[in-house]
From TrEMBL:
Gene3D superfamilies: NAD(P)-binding Rossmann-like Domain. Keywords: NAD, Oxidoreductase. Residues 4-328 form the D-isomer specific 2-hydroxyacid dehydrogenase catalytic domain. It comes from the Bacteria. This is D-lactate dehydrogenase. It comes from Lactiplantibacillus xiangfangensis.
Length: 330
């Protein structure tokens, strides 16, 4: 049995090697994304695992090509699968799986860390100190126990974030189309997104990317937020309309933002643009704002999360090839 993994980073190799040795399976790797022009590399393999930052492509025949090679599945070792045309893959007879919960704590902890930096004005202090200005006047911080944190999307990650924020003493409210009774000891559900935006001092986004969540936070939504409120996005870039966020920050409609993901990030993130003029004018403007933090979609990037992404994805491939069920199929 042979499995090919696309887009493998150096930090994943140890976990891949350990899994391959433990399961007596040959696992080969490359550093290429899976696209119609790289699909041929999968010939001769029994299983394929991918990790995409950009869409596979508009040609649905790539999925049939995998099926014609004898492959039965296409596994993403990430939670997001918007880069895959799932109907086309299923039409070709491929089982598509993902890793929906590689480590809810990794992303939830990122949100908490970003929130703490914002409410303590640490980015603004960094800006002053960079100019050798050690004054602290005007940068009084707020304690998290005095704040209301509003979580949009209280699923695995959002629910974990709720417990962390509650543990720090914050009042936590949440909006989600699905309510989880097991979280009601740490949060209070509100009826609408608008209710949450009006009440929250910190808006923390943890929604999946789908047709209902694209543009979820636009100009109208931002105008509902308090002028001294912050927004945190550790979900997916298109959830926030970036241009509208830039305008809201310039107008002082909100106090700041922490973004681990942005629209169009595939052209920016995990690449070195040092010395270049960024073509994305919205991101370029955000990076000049001292009350904005941008990180290159690294909320997931912890030791435990990386190992889980490798192990769970390969376990799913093995199960499918053996004709066994998996809980992660679409």
């Amino acid at each position: 049995m042979k499995i090919l993994m696309f887009s493998v980073r150096d930090d994943e190799e140890a976990a891949i090697k350990a899994w391959a040795e433990s399961n007596h399976v040959q696992v080969d790797t490359n550093d290429l994304e899976f696209h119609p022009d790289t699909a041929e590399l999968a010939r001769g393999y029994d299983g394929v695992v991918i990790q995409q930052r950009s869409a596979i492509g508009d040609d649905p025949s790539v999925y049939q090509k995998l099926a014609d090679m004898g492959l039965k599945q296409l596994t993403s070792r990430t939670a997001g699968v918007d880069t895959i045309d799932i109907p086309a893959a299923k039409k070709a007879g491929l089982t598509v799986t993902n890793v929906p919960a590689y480590s809810p704590n990794s992303v939830a902890e990122m949100s908490v860390a970003q929130t703490m930096r914002l409410i303590r004005n640490l980015e603004l202090f960094d800006s002053r100190l960079g100019q050798q200005n050690f004054q602290w006047a005007g940068l009084q911080a707020r304690e998290i126990r005095s704040l209301t944190v509003g979580i949009i999307g209280a699923g695995r990650i959002g629910g974990t974030a709720a417990r962390l924020f509650h543990g720090l003493g914050a009042k936590v409210i949440a909006y989600d189309v699905v309510r989880h009774p097991e979280l009601e000891d740490v949060l209070t559900y509100v009826d609408t997104k608008e209710d949450l935006l009006k009440q929250a001092d910190v808006v923390d986004l943890h929604v999946d990317l789908n047709e209902t969540s694209k543009g979820l936070i636009d100009a109208a939504a931002l105008k509902l937020m308090k002028n001294d409120a912050f927004i945190i996005n550790a979900s997916r870039g298109p959830v926030i309309v970036t241009g509208d966020l830039v305008d809201a920050l310039k107008a002082g409609e909100i106090a700041g933002a922490a973004l681990d993901t942005v629209e169009g990030e595939a052209a920016l993130f995990n690449q070195n643009h040092q010395g270049e003029v960024l073509q994305d004018t919205n991101v370029a403007q955000l990076m000049q704002m001292p009350n904005v933090m941008i990180t290159p979609h690294v909320g997931f990037y912890t030791n435990l999360a990386v190992k889980n992404m490798v192990d769970i994805s390969l376990n799913d491939v093995l199960a499918i090839l053996k004709g066994q069920p998996t809980d992660h199929a679409f």
